[in-house]
Specification:
Strands 6-7-8-3-9-10 form a six-stranded mixed beta sheet, with helices on both faces. A four-stranded antiparallel beta sheet has the order 2-1-4-5, with helices on one face. A two-stranded antiparallel ribbon has the order 11-12. Helix 2 crosses helix 3 (about 110-125), helix 2 (about 90-95) runs parallel beside helix 4 (about 140-150) and helix 5 (about 170-185) packs parallel to helix 6 (about 195-205). Helix content is about 30%, strand content about 30%. The protein has helices at about 40-50, 90-95, 110-125, 140-150, 170-185, 195-205, 220-225, 225-235; strands at about 5-15, 15-25, 30-35, 55-60, 65, 75-80, 155-160, 190-195, 205-210, 215-220, 235-245, 245-255. It folds into two domains: about 5-75 and about 155-255, P-loop containing nucleotide triphosphate hydrolases (Rossmann fold), CATH 3.40.50.300; about 85-155, no CATH class. The chain is built from eight helices and twelve strands. The structure holds adenosine-5'-triphosphate. This is Iron ABC transporter ATP-binding protein. One of its GO terms (molecular function) is ATP hydrolysis activity. InterPro entries: AAA+_ATPase, ABC_transporter-like_ATP-bd, ABC_transporter-like_CS, Metal_Ion_Import_ABC, P-loop_NTPase.
């Protein structure tokens, strides 16, 4: 087991926990999707797992170590929600910051670091933009650059906060395909926050859906049901099976509230 959470709590304000009694685990190469309404605590959960926020209590075992009080967790790559950069960096210079797993802009990278960056950019199919300025990229390209930066420290666990938001359908597929490929071919486990059930059903093995007072967690097919959509999102839906290229593609049609 790569990550195991037991009875974890987190609150921004005393005695008002946002995350209550959270328990789940993730194996090597598994993809876990986190879902839930706006403001329910998904980003908070990702930040606690990544060590950006400190759990109030519970046990969080990552790679055999209890990380409940860790300041910086090695081997976790974190990709925050899409954002514009305050400064303009070349793609290769931004991605190389990921080499030491921090945003330490003052440590000079070496040639070996740039070689590793080049191979990652190549693997993600964005080598051709290595000398482009990040603030001149499209949203889809920028998202791939942030994923490259997170991969630059060779993480065992990749954490992505709504990676497909703001992207067109083609780029959503591209990002999802990349996440799935990294899990299958490199065994990189992934936790992904998403607002798109049809997307996560394409790539996730497990799913955790949060609400204010409870959550549900399990295999994706047992969790992503019409009942869960009604109970956690207050929306009526119909889950249909479509056939595409000889594969079954389960998809929700959202009918109304
Ligand atoms: N730094 C903070 N201090 C106090 N409260 C916060 C802080 N950050 C977030 N919150 C609150 O915690 C709750 C959960 O926020 P969070 O960003 O984790 O939700 P989310 O499920 O990721 O939302 P969304 O789907 O809209 O991105 C919200 O009510 C938010 O206002």
């Amino acid at each position: 087991m790569l990550l195991k959470l037991r009875n974890c709590y987190y609150s921004y304000k005393p005695n008002e926990p946002i995350l209550k009694n959270i328990s789940f685990s993730i194996k090597e190469g598994e993809i876990l999707a986190i879902m839930g309404c706006n403001g329910i605590g998904k980003t908070t959960l990702l930040k606690c797992i990544a060590g950006i926020l400190k759990w109030d209590s519970g046990t969080c075992i990552f790679n055999g170590q209890n990380t409940i009080n860790a300041n910086r967790i090695k081997d976790i790559g974190y990709v925050p929600q899409a954002r514009k950069l305050p400064f303009s960096y070349l793609v290769k210079d931004l991605v190389v910051f990921g080499r030491n797993g921090t945003n330490n802009y003052f440590q000079s990278p070496k040639k070996e670091d740039y070689d590793i960056v080049d191979s990652i950019l190549n693997e993600l199919g964005i080598y051709h933009i290595r000398n482009s300025y990040c603030n001149e990229l499209s949203g889809g390209q920028l998202q791939m650059v942030f994923i490259a930066k997170a991969l630059a420290s060779f993480p065992k666990l990749l954490i992505l906060d709504e990676p497909e938001s703001h992207l067109d359908f083609y780029n959503q597929f591209k990002v999802l395909h990349t996440i799935s490929k990294l899990a299958k071919e490199k065994g990189i486990s992934t936790i992904i926050n998403s607002h798109y059930p049809n997307n996560i059903m394409k790539i996730a093995n497990k799913c955790l859906v949060l609400s204010k007072d409870k959550y549900t967690y399990g295999d994706i097919s047992s969790i992503m049901t019409e009942k869960t959509i009604k109970e956690y999102f207050y929306v009526n839906s119909k889950l249909i099976d479509l056939n595409y290229k000889d594969k079954n593609v389960p998809s929700f049609v959202f009918l109304g509230t």
